[in-house]
Amino acid sequence: MPTIFDLLGIKNKGYIQFGTDLLSKQHNQTVAFRNGDFVSPTYTKISGTVYDSKTGKKLTDMTTKQKDTVKQMQNHVTTELSLSDRVIQGDLLRFYTPKGFKKVNKSDYSYKLTKTLKSLKEIQAEKKTSVLSKHKGKSTESLYKTDAPELSSSSDSSSSSSSSSD
């Protein structure tokens, strides 16, 4: 989100966000993975093993400076993951009420697959906006023209035969 806000010219001070502005000079390029591993322009740590990100070689005899740098990166990753966990598991955003905030009723939303699919089918039945429904179930694939080599005439017969069975 910080990058999108920057691109749109929106000041994002006062918002709770995770991540960094990719366009910022202060952007931390360390990418954290859920299991605590990380990748940065200089070091990659996977399952406790540290690699040089540029060469891909395993670093076995690291200098004190290298160890300190990796430790700082690991602390950053651990902190980010811990803060994220606290917000999510503690449902802490329920206490966040910035100016102009409209409270969301959680019971209005379901993330269960069966309910979501049912809801989507109902919406599709009410508002037939898809290209397929606007063409009474007929494919518009034949209207698509391309010079992409992977879709050359040799593959046309296989794609048209598969679409005719739909």
From TrEMBL:
Broadest EC class assigned to this enzyme: transferase
Protein name: Phosphatidylglycerol--membrane-oligosaccharide glycerophosphotransferase
InterPro entries the UniProt entry points to: Alkaline_phosphatase_core_sf, OpgB/LTA_synthase_biosynth
Disordered: region residues: 128-166
EC number: 2.7.8.20
Low complexity bias (residue ranges): 152-166
Keywords: Transferase
UniProt GO molecular function: phosphatidylglycerol-membrane-oligosaccharide glycerophosphotransferase activity
Biological source species: Lactiplantibacillus plantarum subsp. plantarum
